[in-house]
């Protein structure tokens, strides 16, 4: 599984319509327009991805869930 770094859609790598390599890492995209957006400003999407991963990591560590937040 892969996550399109632009629209955050989950997709199977073999179903990706486009790919880009940036800093030796391969990124998969659900549409050519997502790839085009990424290629224009990859650092933006890499930063969003890194922040998203950190949030998930800390929520998991702290036992945070959406139900618990209510």
Note down, in words, how this protein is organized.
The protein has 70 residues and is of the alpha+beta class. It has one domain (2-69). 49% of the residues lie in helices and 20% in strands. It is built from three helices and four strands, in the order E-E-E-E-H-H-H. Strands 1-2 form a two-stranded antiparallel ribbon. Strands 3-4 form a two-stranded antiparallel sheet. A hairpin with a 2-residue loop joins strand 3 and strand 4 (25-29). Helix 1 (32-40) crosses helix 2 (42-62).
Strand content: 15-25%
Helical residue percent? 40-55%
- Give me the number of helical elements: 3
Q: What is the tally of beta strands?
A: 4
Observed structural traits:
4 strands, globular, 70 residues, alpha+beta, 3 helices, two-stranded antiparallel sheet
List strands and helices in order, with pairings.
Blueprint: E1 2-3, E2 10-11, E3 18-22, E4 25-29, H1 32-40, H2 42-62, H3 66-69
Antiparallel strand pairs: 1-2, 3-4
Helix pairs in contact: 1-2
């Amino acid at each position: 599984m892969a996550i399109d770094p632009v629209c955050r859609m989950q997709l199977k790598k073999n179903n990706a319509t486009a790919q880009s390599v940036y800093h030796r890492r391969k990124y998969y995209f659900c549409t050519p327009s997502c790839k085009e957006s990424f290629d224009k400003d990859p650092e933006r999407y890499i930063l969003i991805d890194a922040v998203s991963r950190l949030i998930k990591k800390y929520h998991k560590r702290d036992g945070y869930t959406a139900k618990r937040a209510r």
